[in-house]
Amino acid sequence: MFKFIKKYSKYFNLYTYILIGFVIWMLFFDAHSLLFHHELNSDINELEYQKEHYKNEIAKDEKAIKELSTEEGVERTARETYYMKKPNEDIFIIEYEDSIAKQKQNE
Fold first, then answer.
1. pTM value?
2. What positions belong to coiled-coil segments (predicted)?
3. What is the C-alpha separation between 61 and 81, in angstroms, rounded?
4. SS3 sequence, 47-70?
5. What is the spatial distance between Cα 73 and Cα 101, in angstroms, rounded to a whole number?
6. What pLDDT score was predicted for residue 106?
7. What does each C-alpha distance from 15 to 2, 7, 19, 27 come to in angstroms?
8. Burial, 49: exposed, middle or buried (Cβ in 10 Å; 0-12, 13-18, 19+)?
9. Does residue 84 come out as left (phi exceeding 0), alpha (psi in the -120 to 50 range) or beta?
10. Distance CA 39, CA 49 (A)
11. Mean pLDDT of 5-10
């Protein structure tokens, strides 16, 4: 590199060296460097992904709330999730072998 500078030193002067130093400083060492902007852009992308995820979760929850706002929806949820029953009624729970195998794998 020094050979390069010596060879072309007639084209370089103090202002050129200052400009090169300034550009290097701004690109890599300053608080607003390219590296810092790259980190911020990756954070922005991750936050946008989380935003979409939470929007989908909110839509799913709103759908569940709408379903539970009716008497039929509450009854169906109580029967399917909590195995509740009406008086003088019998409930039969049918489990398939593949669902039992999945439960064993999760435990």
1. 0.52
2. 37-71
3. 16
4. HHHHHHHHHHHHHHHHHHHHHHCC
5. 30
6. 67
7. 18, 18, 6, 18
8. exposed
9. beta
10. 16
11. 68
